[in-house]
Write a structure and sequence with these properties.
This protein is mainly alpha-helical. It has a domain at 10-25 and 50-64 and 75-146. Helices cover 66% and strands 0% of the residues. It contains four helices and no strands. It has helices spanning 10-27, 39-62, 88-104, 107-146. The longest helix is centred in the C-terminal third of the chain and has 40 residues, at 107-146. The radius of gyration is 17 Å and the shape is globular.
């Protein structure tokens, strides 16, 4: 059986990274290395990320298309927040992790946010872009040309 990162659900990856950050924060001297902490700004960023993710999720539900990255995509969603970013669910999760990092302020939480962004950008976004190009052809290519991957 071959290991494929793409077979894991992005929220589970985020949860695992947060769990590792918590362990590293509490079980090592890394918690002493507070990079920058701003709990209020972290809360705002986290809430904005959650709202972004949930709005994108709702648009997928309304379009009756799969949310799982490896499932068949029934419809190309380009409305609402998808006019500004091709990956608002991922962007929302990155914002939530960044908000948590800002709130706590320690290096393991910042690392978790950066690692999650890299995993999503390098593995999931590329996988989904190939899948959507094969499934929707010129419609997807035109969408990709006018809307950025992130912001």
């Amino acid at each position: 059986m071959k290991f494929r990162l793409i077979d894991f659900r992005p929220p589970r990856i985020a949860q695992l990274l947060v769990a590792i950050a918590v362990l590293l924060h509490w079980l090592t001297p890394l918690r002493q290395a507070i990079v920058y902490s701003n709990p209020a700004l972290g809360a705002v960023l986290g809430i904005a990320g959650f709202a972004t993710m949930m709005r994108a999720w709702w648009l997928f539900r309304q379009a009756d298309t799969a949310i799982c990255p490896t499932a068949r995509t029934a419809q190309l969603v380009t409305l609402g927040i998808y006019r500004f970013t091709r990956n608002p669910m991922y962007l929302g999760m990155v914002a939530m992790l960044a908000g948590l990092a800002l709130a706590v302020g320690s290096l393991p939480f910042y690392a978790a946010a950066v690692i999650y962004l890299l995993i999503i950008d390098r593995a999931f976004c590329r996988y989904e872009e190939r899948k959507l190009e094969l499934g929707f052809g010129d419609d997807y290519l035109a969408y990709r040309k006018r809307v950025r991957r992130w912001i």
